[in-house]
């Protein structure tokens, strides 16, 4: 079992308590050693003071048999024959408290005796030699033993203060961490309660603690994005189901009616109508597949390509009901998946042709390190507030529904995904008249040698190309405008 707590708060509190205890032990030791030293000095001074007081009395003689016991020091004076001639009250009539004496030239010697004769407990006994005319007299002084920590009061004081400091520090750390972690807990609880149905909820942002504030704000930003993505996915799913259901319902009605009145049914016409529905379903499913592959980040081919020539080749491949004005700069190289870039171009040209009144202008140029492709028509244009919306999946503006019921509303979404997969952008920008779509891609170095027939061999989606990811092209059908847009039939 792991004895160490896993909670951050418990660990920090424990760590603070341990550190505070170590610091207190260190400081207390220093304090007690200092107090012990002081006490030892005091005891030494007491012994020296007693010696200073008693030696003159011995020298003067005669000594009183009972000495005044100054400040609790037990004293005995022994004559040259080791007879106690004078002592403090508690040692009167008692034998010498010790037998040792300094053996060297030193007049002083000290020992701890437990107990000295005639006394109780352990005491430090100090023996002084006093040189008299009749020999060496001895003065014994007994003072209490001084422990290393001085006295009990100092020890109790150190322990008391240490316990108080450790308790206060630990309590402070616990209280402070509890306060700091409170908003984290609130964020955790809110996040735990957020489900797919409560994506509008946000975590509380605390007023203080910058780091936790940042965490809460980041969590809320993430929730914003998640909510946006979830709403988009919901819209996408419901739009996709709706767009898939409509042709299925129509085909079912046609087939049921034909089965009900087989003799009255114009079978070739009915089959053609059902085929149109099937083609539309096929177009939607293929577009959805293309989008799913782009979403999954499928790897792109990256061929160095002259964008002007690629666009020129695509324009000359088909005819238009409106006039095409070309301004195609050469040697503007991009590293791209040609089929996908052609797919963007085809969708832009289809849209432009559908909405243009009389003219479409297509331009290619290099702006520094950016290759720019512009498709501009002279139609009604797209209102500023719809310019981002049209890139959403299944978005078709009302005017387009009237103009062409066959579009899926996925073309621009796919085109933008392709642009972004090439590290570029696709936007709608201001123009005097009509809609101006601008594709920007990073330029790259030209290949060592460019084959003039390079692009003629590139199968275009509009020519029924199948790159393995794009939709298989249905045969061109005059009755279905989208087949021109996707199938690239001539008009
Ligand atoms: N040049 C344009 N002028 C005006 N509106 C346009 C133009 N290009 C696109 N739009 C609007 O943007 C919408 C989305 O275009 P998008 O290409 O994504 O779909 P679509 O053309 O309707 O269908 P498809 O999936 O077949 O391309 C169109 O339905 C139309 O309303
Ligand atoms: Mg389109």
From TrEMBL:
Coiled coil feature spans: 209-236
Keywords noted in UniProt: Coiled coil, Kinase, Membrane, Phosphoprotein, Transferase, Transmembrane, Transmembrane helix, Two-component regulatory system
Top enzyme class: transferase
Location relative to the cell: Cell membrane
E.C. number(s) listed in UniProt: 2.7.13.3
PANTHER family to which the protein is assigned, alphabetical: SENSOR HISTIDINE KINASE TRCS (PTHR45436:SF5), SENSOR HISTIDINE KINASE YKOH (PTHR45436)
Protein name as catalogued: histidine kinase
């Amino acid at each position: 079992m792991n004895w160490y707590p896993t909670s951050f708060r418990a660990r920090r509190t424990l760590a603070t308590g341990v550190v505070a205890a170590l610091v207190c032990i260190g400081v207390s030791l220093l304090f007690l050693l200092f107090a012990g030293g002081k006490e030892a000095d005091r005891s030494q001074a007491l012994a020296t003071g007693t010696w200073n007081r008693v030696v003159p009395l011995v020298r003067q003689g005669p000594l009183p048999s009972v000495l005044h016991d100054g400040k609790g020091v037990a004293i005995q004076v022994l004559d040259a024959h080791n007879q106690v001639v004078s002592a403090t009250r508690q040692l009167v009539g008692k034998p010498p408290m010790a037998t040792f004496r300094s053996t060297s030239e030193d007049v002083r010697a000290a020992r701890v005796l437990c107990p000295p004769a005639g006394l109780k407990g352990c005491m430090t006994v100090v023996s002084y030699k006093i040189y008299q005319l009749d020999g060496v007299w001895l003065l014994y002084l007994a003072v209490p033993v001084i422990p290393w920590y001085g006295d009990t009061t100092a020890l109790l004081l150190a322990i008391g203060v240490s316990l108080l400091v450790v308790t206060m520090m630990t309590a402070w750390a616990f209280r402070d961490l509890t306060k700091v972690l409170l908003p984290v807990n609130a964020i955790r609880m809110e996040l735990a309660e957020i489900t797919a149905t409560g994506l509008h909820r946000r975590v509380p942002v605390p007023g203080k603690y910058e780091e936790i504030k940042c965490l809460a704000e980041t969590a809320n930003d993430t929730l914003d994005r998640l909510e946006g993505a979830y709403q988009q996915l919901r819209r996408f799913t419901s739009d996709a189901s709706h767009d898939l259901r409509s042709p299925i319902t129509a085909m079912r009605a046609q087939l049921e009616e034909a089965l009900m009145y087989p003799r009255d049914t114009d079978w070739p016409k009915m089959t053609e109508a059902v085929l149109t529905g099937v083609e539309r379903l096929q177009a939607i499913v293929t577009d959805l597949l293309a989008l799913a592959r782009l979403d999954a980040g499928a790897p792109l081919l990256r061929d160095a390509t002259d964008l002007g020539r690629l666009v020129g080749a695509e324009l000359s491949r088909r005819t238009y009901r409106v006039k095409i004005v070309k301004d195609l700069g050469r040697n503007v190289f991009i590293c791209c998946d040609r089929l996908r870039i052609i797919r963007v171009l085809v969708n832009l040209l289809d849209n432009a042709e559908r909405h243009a009144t009389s003219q479409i202008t297509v331009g290619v140029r290099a702006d520094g390190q950016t290759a720019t492709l512009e498709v501009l028509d002279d139609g009604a244009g797209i209102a500023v507030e719809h310019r981002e919306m049209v890139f959403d999946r299944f978005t078709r503006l009302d005017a387009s529904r009237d103009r062409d019921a066959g579009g899926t509303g996925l073309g621009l979404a796919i085109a933008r995904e392709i642009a972004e997969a090439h590290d570029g952008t696709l936007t709608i920008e201001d123009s005097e008249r009509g809609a101006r779509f601008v594709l920007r891609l990073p330029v790259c170095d030209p290949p060592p040698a460019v084959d003039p027939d390079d692009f003629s061999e590139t199968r275009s989606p509009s020519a029924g190309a199948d790159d393995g990811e794009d939709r298989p092209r249905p045969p061109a059908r005059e009755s279905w405008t989208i087949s021109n847009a996707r199938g690239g039939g001539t008009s």
